[in-house]
């Protein structure tokens, strides 16, 4: 059912997409032509009634209604509401496709970790993959009308070979009103544990890998089922549908061509058929029909997912992987590039013009002059390796002098009270550092020894 056109647009060329406009299956024309013809017929019916059936007084009233509807149609936010809705539906559509369960990872894990070339090993591997196919089929049967028409009852599943009669009795014997796609997954886990006890699964790490792949497969089944259960909120769909249909019902009246003799602004020309209104209808209603088709891709539309084809492919591939291909490894031999240090696959004459040089990075295209590539001495660049300068002795001496003079003045010229912890002989000292006389570097002695007058 899927319409595939990727080969038509594999290479961009002049008018590439224009070739797709002539396709009918899955096209917007097939999806929209009924609504477009109905809108055009209703518009022409009103136009003919205005021109030939109404009296002059009725025509004046109709013209006032046309002007009012034309002005009011711009108040409906069609593009805003419809754009967000279609974006949401498209994201949901892609998420549903990604949630379709595929057995590829699980079948590789089963084929590589459930050992035994005898009948017992073969039946274990085939039964494990049959359980996984049954779980996916129970989900797809619940969400896809095409799959349900193919397998309407569990008897059809038994006849198709996905279930045995005993398994059907066990499945139907479970008293649960919910979908039972999880039951084959439980059977898979129990059978994998039995294979481990029999030594068919040789260690716990292999069993852990099988269960991880099973849980990943089951998660896809569960997500797909919940996509079908939890839809886009109904109010959102209703708002968008009402907005689009109300807009074009208003346009049926508001976009009528009026008598140019009446001198209405914007009605100087009478074309009879509203070409650009029809284009607007084509785009907006076509946008809504796209959302209508994508919101449930498990139906029977031209662009819905081919679920029955997926079932056939997954079942056949999984059985081949765990049965006919089990333990079959082609004979090892040297490849044709065994003695080649830099192997390179050949090109045909048709593909040779497409060969490109290896990309090494965009910075390799930068061109530099020869003199700009010479290293420069550090002195020429203004850099130095010397440490930053240290404060001199004079700077420390001046700082101590200023602090002593400031603190010796006291408060408003009064001497400090005796016994005050912040005073010593009338001088308050804040020790920032000093150097010894004769030292060449103030940092050689830190902190410096205090004199008698500097001790607190």
Keywords summarizing the entry:
mainly alpha; 14 helices
How are the secondary structure elements laid out?
Elements: H1 28-53, H2 56-72, H3 78-98, H4 104-113, H5 119-143, H6 145-150, H7 154-160, H8 165-173, H9 182-197, H10 204-229, H11 234-254, H12 275-294, H13 307-324, H14 393-408
Helix pairs in contact: 1-12, 2-11, 3-11, 3-12, 4-10, 4-13, 5-9, 5-10, 5-13, 9-10, 11-12
Describe this structure in words.
- With 456 residues, this protein is mainly α.
- The protein is built from 14 helices and no strands.
Characterize this entry briefly.
Helices cover about 50% and strands about 0% of the residues. By secondary structure, it is an all-alpha fold.
- Helix and strand content put the structural class at mainly alpha
Distance between the termini: 97 Å
Helix content: 40-55%
Q: How large is the radius of gyration?
A: 42 Å
Overall pLDDT confidence: 86
Give a short account of the largest sheet: none
Low-confidence stretches: 410-440
Strand content: under 5%
């Amino acid at each position: 059912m899927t319409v595939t056109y990727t080969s038509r647009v594999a290479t961009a060329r002049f008018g590439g997409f224009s070739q797709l406009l002539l396709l009918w299956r899955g096209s917007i024309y097939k999806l929209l032509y009924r609504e477009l013809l109905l809108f055009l017929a209703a518009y022409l019916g009103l136009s003919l009634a205005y021109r030939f059936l109404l009296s002059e007084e009725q025509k004046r009233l109709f013209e006032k209604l046309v002007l009012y509807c034309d002005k009011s149609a711009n108040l409906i936010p069609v593009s805003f509401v419809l754009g967000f809705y279609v974006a949401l539906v498209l994201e949901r559509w892609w998420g549903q496709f990604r949630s379709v369960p595929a057995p590829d990872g699980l079948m590789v894990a089963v084929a590589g970790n459930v050992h035994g070339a005898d009948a017992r090993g073969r039946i274990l591997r085939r039964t494990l993959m049959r359980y996984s196919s049954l779980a996916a089929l129970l989900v797809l049967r619940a969400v896809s009308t095409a799959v349900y028409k193919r397998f309407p009852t569990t008897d059809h599943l038994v006849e198709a070979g996905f279930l045995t009669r005993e398994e059907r009795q066990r499945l139907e014997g479970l008293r649960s009103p919910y979908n039972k796609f999880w039951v084959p997954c439980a059977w898979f886990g129990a059978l994998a544990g039995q294979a481990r006890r029999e030594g068919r699964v040789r260690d716990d790490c292999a069993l852990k890998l099988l269960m991880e792949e099973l849980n990943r497969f089951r998660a896809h089944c569960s997500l797909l089922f919940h996509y079908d259960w939890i839809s886009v909120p109904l109010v959102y769909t209703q708002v968008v549908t009402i907005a689009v249909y109300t807009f074009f019902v208003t346009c049926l009246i508001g976009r009528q061509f009026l008598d140019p003799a009446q001198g209405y602004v914007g009605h100087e020309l009478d074309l009879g058929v509203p070409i650009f209104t029809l284009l607007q209808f084509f785009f907006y209603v076509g946008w809504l029909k796209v959302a209508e088709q994508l919101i449930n891709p498990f139906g029977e539309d031209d662009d819905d997912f081919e679920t029955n084809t997926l079932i056939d492919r997954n079942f056949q591939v999984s059985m081949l992987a765990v049965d006919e291909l089990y333990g079959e490894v082609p004979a090892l031999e040297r490849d044709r590039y065994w003695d080649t240090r830099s192997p390179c696959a050949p090109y045909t004459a048709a593909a040779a013009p497409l060969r490109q040089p290896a990309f090494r990075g965009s910075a390799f295209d930068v061109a530099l002059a020869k003199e700009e590539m010479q290293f420069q001495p550090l002195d020429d660049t203004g850099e130095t390796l010397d440490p930053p300068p240290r404060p001199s002795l004079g700077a420390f001496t001046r700082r101590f002098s200023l602090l002593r003079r400031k603190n010796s003045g006291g408060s408003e010229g009064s001497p400090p009270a005796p016994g005050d912890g912040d005073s010593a002989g009338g001088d308050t000292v804040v020790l920032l550092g000093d150097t010894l006389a004769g030292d060449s570097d103030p940092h050689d002695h830190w902190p410096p020894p205090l004199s008698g007058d500097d001790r607190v």
